[in-house]
Known about the structure:
Layout: H1 2-49, E1 56-58, E2 68-74, E3 79-87, E4 92-100, E5 105-112, H2 121-124, H3 128-131, H4 150-175
Amino acid sequence: MKKDFVMPILVLMLICLISSAVLAATNSLTAPIITIAKQERAAAARYEIIPDAEEFVPLELGDLPSSVTEAYSTTNNVGYIFSVTASGYGGDIRIMCGISEDGNLIACKTLEHTETKGIGTRIVEEGEFSDNLVGKDSRLEGVSAVTGATISSNAYLAGIRDAFKAYELVRAPVKGGGV
């Protein structure tokens, strides 16, 4: 009786151990490849947002808003790139924003999201919502939430506002004539 009870448990444990080992090995092999692919996509997105940039130089994050995960300046002074993570309805929305030297939004690109298909995705897809943002300054006047996707669009706009806050912080030393 004990053997009938113990043997299936041992077999299941062995199957779980082998499966876990295979998954761990696969993860250790693919994690660096995935990281490199994400970095390459981010680099391509920077040039897509600010095509006139010669190169991008990473900026020190210091006192920037916590949602800002990366900040770059162009070497030819055409603008800045800020990567922001905002909390949407379905989870995090990773946005990359380009802001010109004079403080206007050049473009935004959604890098990753988990918003509801058909509703929340309307704010992260290329089109009317993102097109209304181009050329806006930090006030984002005339931009409103997408009907039916209020939480998602408000999160997206909050992320863009954080990008503008970061822009003001990295521009402050230049405006003051400092470093």
